[in-house]
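Sequence in, structure out.
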Amino acid sequence: MKRRRRRKRRKKEEEEKKKKKKKEEEEKKKEKKEEEEKKKKKKEEEEKKKKKKKEEEEEKKKKKKEEEEKKKKEKKKEEKQNEEEKNGVVLLEDEK
């Protein structure tokens, strides 16, 4: 009788150990999966930041280029106006 009880108890203990081990393994898998998700999410966030920064840089360059073009046009217009004024003065002098 004692032998049976002992066997039964040992068998039960073994089953409990197996269950416990299985549960621990599942927990580890779950933790690992969560960790991977966090890493993936962090990586995606970094990619978004890089993309946004790149877009901002491009926008800055575009604005700068537009400003330079605007300045060039204004300078040409001013030079043309100065040239016309010079020519106008010359014409007035020629008329005299």
